[in-house]
Amino acid sequence: MKDDDKKSNVFFVVAMIALSALDVFCWFSVVSGRPNLGAEAYFLDVGQGDSELMAFPGGITMMTDAGPTDAVTHSLEKAVPGRRYIDLAFITHPQADHFGGYDFVLDHYGVGAFLYNGRDDDPGVTAWTSLKSKIAAKHIPLITLSAGDRIHYKNDEVDILSPNSEFDESAELNDTGLVEMIRTEHFRALFAADIGFNVEDWLVANIKDFRADILKVPHHGSKYSSGDALLRAVDPAVAIIEVGAKNVYGQPGAATLARLASSTRAEIFRTDKNGNIEVHSEGGMLKVTREK
To answer: Which of 1, 247, 248, 251 is 20 to 30 A (C-alpha) from 20?
Structure first.
């Protein structure tokens, strides 16, 4: 997508959902009633796929990916019972284990806007075309983000670190995944999509302050991701691997687990073993709650 088209789309979304411009845009929620607590990060058990939910003070919710199936709706209900509105929904890249569950989310939840990397790859994947049609039919804005874009909400912000122009046209879709650095008042979280060593190395070389308290481990713990350089630069206290039990890919890889152990001080949690995982700050310390 051309830069002019992208800027036009961003402006359209801002106008349509009555937001004020701050970098890319700011947003507010029509949902109320949530206590004024700090931000909470949920890593949803969706089988072999990714899905994260950020809950910000004031009831703001920001979802990243939705796994491959309707499992996401059950995990969402466990994480935020009774909630039926998602302010922002990210699709990191158009692969089914990241977007498939949104088809079911849209049957049960209102969504303020969808954000993605602008790629419409593999027209043979009818589920992707179907999801985009469903989003359009519900008149939900769909906008493109890339490296350098930023979202603000009060004292919290989300920086898009990748893809840049070097990666957004890559033939390898995993290179194009939206990488989010989420900065809240009490913690920082890096959601690293399915990136591999090449994108990791670019980030380490080009992002000045890459530290994060929480790392969503890239690509379900693939042996081709989570290099030592990335892990040392991020230096997480908590690392979450979103992965399906007994998956055919052998994820997480033994080499990745070894690198996490040797290059970080992180406590490691896995959705295949722990179910839904929730992380928040309490008394200046990160607290992790597991479903199992």
So the answer is: 1
Contact status, residue 149 vs residue 168, Cβ threshold 8 Å: no
Name the one residue in this structure whose structure tokens are 């004020």: 20
Full-model pTM: 0.88
Q: Which two tokens stand for residue 33?
A: 């009633």
CATH code assigned to 3-290: 3.60.15.10
Is the Cβ–Cβ distance between 142 and 112 less than 8 Å?
no
Sheet holding 150-153, edge to edge: 25-26, 150-153, 156-162, 179-183, 188-191, 214-216, 238-241, 267-270
The 10s digit of each residue's pLDDT in 3-22 is 434 443 443 333 333 333 33
Q: Tell me the pLDDT tens digit for each residue of 119-143.
A: 987 656 789 999 999 999 999 999 9
List the alpha helices (DSSP H) in 17-121. Answer: 71-79, 96-99, 102-108
Tokens of 122: 């593999």
Q: Which two tokens stand for residue 100?
A: 């498939």
Q: How far apart are the C-alpha atoms of 148 and 131, rounded to whole Å?
A: 27
Question: Does residue 94 come out as left (phi exceeding 0), alpha (psi in the -120 to 50 range) or beta?
Answer: beta
Phi, psi dihedral angles at 215 (to 5 degrees)? -120, 120
